[in-house]
Amino acid sequence: MNYDQNNVFARILRGEIPCHRICENEGGISFYDVSPQAKIHALVIPKGPYRDAFCFHSKATSKEILDFSHLLTQTLQALDLVGPDGFRLIANSGKNGGQEVPHYHIHILGGESIGPLRK
Length: 119
Ligand code: AMP
Known about the structure:
Elements: H1 8-13, E1 21-25, E2 28-32, E3 40-46, H2 53-59, H3 62-78, E4 88-90, H4 94-97, E5 106-110
Antiparallel strand pairs: 1-2, 2-3, 3-5, 4-5
Bound molecules: adenosine monophosphate (AMP).
């Protein structure tokens, strides 16, 4: 399956749509989710054109993967989520994973108890 160059996160990366940015490095950006599902809800995305978690982790360069990993930790620190209370990370992939935006992203949910995975 091809990468859709007009998905909303590709448009954010091109500066065509605004976002409330948290952190950025060479490999990606993080920003607040427009429709928060928890007190704190952020998204971390790579800058490269990767559709989902498998595409990214199987095709990205070592530098892209390292940059993404650093961006995730920087964002957790910026959101003050590093501590005993914890947080949840989610990476929806494809139809069965419930992925709506076909550009790889990790959701960060925190600031309150997120509850069980299945309600
Ligand atoms: P997923 O279902 O994992 O693909 O999640 C996509 C997420 O992107 C949803 O939580 C949306 O609320 C969020 N989203 C969609 N458009 C925007 C946008 N323009 N800025 C920030 N978040 C967005």
